[in-house]
Amino acid sequence: MVFRVYVEKKPGFDVAAQQLANELRTILGIEALKNVRLVNRYDVEGISEELFAQATPTVFSEPQVDNVYADLPDFGSDTVFAVEYLPGQFDQRADSASECIQLISQGERPTVRSAKVYALEGELSEADVEAIKHYVINPVEAREASLDVKTTLKTQVPVPGKVEVIDGFRSMSDAELEQFIEDRGLAMDLADLQFCREHFTEEQRDPTITEIKVIDTYWSDHCRHTTFGTQLDEVSIDDATVKAAFDKYLEMRHELGRDAKPVCLMDMGTIGAKWLKKNGILKNLDESEEINACTVKVKVDVNGHDEDWLFLFKN
Fold first, then answer.
1. Burial of 292 (C-beta count, 10 Å sphere; 0-12/13-18/19+)
2. Which of 40, 103, 213, 249 is the most exposed place for a label (fewest CB within 10 A)?
3. How confident is the model at residue 161 (pLDDT cuts 50, 70, 90)?
């Protein structure tokens, strides 16, 4: 059974609601908005009715500053909607409530889901309401929630379908591979897919879309690295501070005798270490064929004894 409770700050303590109302008026310019009410909604499954009643004034609310409702309050003609975290997103409020209930019961942790209910008072247009929803809902982590009562909090996981096999991939012409790249929005180019075609021809099978996507994901990461090596023929900078930094980079290039080398982001990122080394400031730099990160030699205390270690700076 799922138990539900609504918790709202009493007038005078509803600082968050008043602050949001002020932001919506000043930032979004919605002058028709008269008032905002925020209500925290909790759904709990896996506990007894007695334990839920015990947790309501101790875990979910503070009687001194909160009003508690068993049902959704009557907001009259206000526009009402709720927001909840997307499945898989961490809900700190719900997790903390679940942990507190477990501490009270000394039993299993119940399932808790939370949502925030917004009640907007005022003669608002549909555009106003949509603008407010866009402001308060981050689609990366949250979504608009149903106001209906839940019968279960168990997540319904659909059975995954059969993984698509790219039939005929090995026999695709170059033109068909180029069209495949466009249709699937891949980061790889024709030469990359030609290599994949050759590989799967040797394996005597067509690849699945998962295999192509995994290869493409790792290849797009590689492409980010190759981007740093792209030669910059003309550079135009408006910001004076950035222009001064770029001029300093060109000055260091000249001092290091690198004028014949192409100007690129990778050179900008590494010129500092090269300059420090040439001027005898960077004395503990580790140089090897494994160029994976800026690496320096350090002494590390291991059980009271100094050992030589390599310290890698990774982004």
1. exposed
2. 103
3. confident
